[in-house]
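#structure-requests
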Amino acid sequence: MRRVIIKLLRRTGYHDSEMTHQFFAGFNDHMVVHPYPAQYEEWITLAGGQPLLMRPIKPTDGPLILDIFSKLSPESVFYRFLTHLGHLQPVQLEHLVKIDCQTHFCLAAVIMENNHEAIIGTSRYIIIPGQADRAERTVTVPDDWQGLKIGKTLVSRVVNIARSRGIRVIEILLDSRNEGMKRRFGRLGYPARYESSVLDVCDHMEIDITGEESHRETYEDILVEFRL
């Protein structure tokens, strides 16, 4: 049913799959804003020696999100939002940066360019309404920054944060052609199930993050279920 609603929302202008959560839970008019979780800030060094700050997204990051969106290829935009999208609507941008860091958490990869911050990747989880132990996950890295394990680093850290907050299962909605996403999440080291659909809007992956990272699954090892 949830994926059917995604189809309906896309036809009425709600392009981002995450916007379905707002459909179910409202537009966060009464969202409780928690203090900025500075404990999740961490400096790392990329392979080429460039320093990179991993930090939670801030309400003031709107211009940085618009900048990273402008650097995505049409294919990357489609894989991220599951529709063709020329620009972000104001309500979508607000949804991406004005978050409570509890039910909706986002970690950004930030570098300094000309003495100004620039976001070169994000990963987020959004708890599914009515299911406090399940969350939808996304990750975005511009094409020019792919291949440097930025996405892998973001995903790993956000999964650990989600686990520490009692989330047991993460869900990923993705296009069937997005092989990079399948590999990235399939190699997290947790049991995963992949559902492929012929008629649905998107494919669906579920990852159980409750256990130890005891085995590394390749995408080919993941159980594939075909649904009509």
